[in-house]
Amino acid sequence: MLNSTDLNNSLSALIESIIHKWSGKEEAISKLSYGAILVVLEMTLTLLSIILNLVVIISIREKESLLNSTLNLLLGNLCFSNLLAAVFVKSIAIIYNGYAVTSEKWSVELAFCMVYTLSSRATWAVLPYTILVLSWLFVVNRATRILGFLFPTSKKKGDSPQSSTIDIELEILKASESEECSKDEEYQNEELEEEFNGIDGLGIIQKSILGFIWFVSLVYSLLSPQYSTRTPTRASFDISSSEDFHHTSNHLPHYSKLTYALMVILTLIFILEYPFNMFFYVIGNTHILLIPLFSILMRKDILQAALSVFSQNSVASQKEDDITFEQFQTHCGMGVNPT
Hints:
By secondary structure, the chain is mainly alpha-helical. It is 73% helix and 1% strand. The protein has a domain at 26-124 and 259-316.
């Protein structure tokens, strides 16, 4: 069976052959050069991930309808977790991994860093619990609709039989009309429904969901053996392996096809991420880059919000809306009058 050492040596030989073909030189690459290449790759990954995560967070923050949607709120929270991992985890991992390569050691004797361990375990746990919450929101939404279809006789107080009959007829008419719509129109309606879900503001359910995710993640980080024993630890090659009900219809998303695909991609990233963490340095940290990238590509509302926020017209209009201090004083009636 191929162990992690053999796999690492195979990957190193593959990368060395690629560098030889690219540079046209057959000389052996020194470990110092390997360390420099590793640091550059990790810093590039960190910089790109910070930019993409900030794009998603700012886009959701600037557009209120996206901020109030539970689905987009969870994606924004996931990108915020990736941003913390890039700043507090990846920056420290670059030092550990670069020193391990340049010193030609599989494991490195370095002092234990509390910030690294706690932040890496906490931010890494946010991903699976976010996937779990997204799945359960879909299940609860579907179950509520099925129960509402199976028990249509439940009426509010004060409803007359005539009004209930009219409601049923309207539902039948709406169902017949929806069947006649094309698939493209149905897909657009699904996306609009996702976008304007939760338009009444950040509710108790959304706050509870975010609190649950971060509470469980922090508990998981505190269960670290290094934190409980408070003893120095060996920073080895797999140092990044630890890295990283009341129904309210306004906050239960109706997922589109692209959203289903995004959930599958998030699950695959989580499943494939952990074994890659144990084998190679850079590949195991790609989740902080892939998650915001797929969130932008597969969520049209986030993509449109990002384009509108970071476009030149938006920046120019924002500059036009800016006022000087004298204009602010004049507007507030503070005694400064233009002549």
